[in-house]
Amino acid sequence: MGIIYSHCVVIKTEGAITTYQVNDQRVVEDGIKKSTLQAYFNEDECEAKCMCGLFEMRGIICRHILSIFAARDVQVLPEKYIMERWRKDIKRRYGLIRSSYDDLSGKPVATRYSGLIKLCYQVATNACENEDNYLDMTQKLKAMNDIYTKSKPHATVASTHASIDAETGSSKNVLSPRVVRGKGRPPSKRRQPTIEKLQTKNKKAGGKRQRENPQSRMEDVLNPTESVILHNTPEAVV
User: Fold this and answer.
1) Where do the DSSP E strands lie in the chain?
2) Which of 170, 187, 198, 237 is buried most, with the most CB atoms less than 10 Å from its CB?
3) Domain shared by 217 and 144, yes or no
């Protein structure tokens, strides 16, 4: 199963916005399935939007937009369509967050990140009290971020994999989670029939008697029929 072809046709053009009708055919189990969708292309921003909504919902660029880019001779995919979650060289922020099981002594980046976060909290607490301080801090942070972004070395996939070090020899012991009762009605609160109650009572009485008199346990093993009859008599139940 797969796509046979996807062809786009211009319907109308209004300024920089061009409306396309995208016709495609796919091979399915029952045969060939044809579908028709509308898509829009903004020439000024080099941006396309398809009615299937695949990129908006899942962050995956659809074949309809790709066919429009091919028709418009777009050689380089716009930065908007390159999601960070699909990049192999992206650095995840949760890898810099400290947990009770991590030892940050071998992670200088995580240590610096933790120190900057504490400092930013202090500065933000003081700057948010005044509108002028807030605007000044925002402007300076944006300028600093632009400088650091330009000076940051471009990481490649190979260098990213090489910088990943496995931590071994940790002395932390990860314990199992605490055992708690599940939600819902307790299983021991069900209604028991009378015969089951009598059997449970006889088992408890028999276990107590065996602990007090080990000789009676031996007699029950040698004469099981007599023991059962004795336990089920009205006198024994009472």
Assistant:
1) 2-14, 17-28, 31-42, 47-50
2) 198
3) no
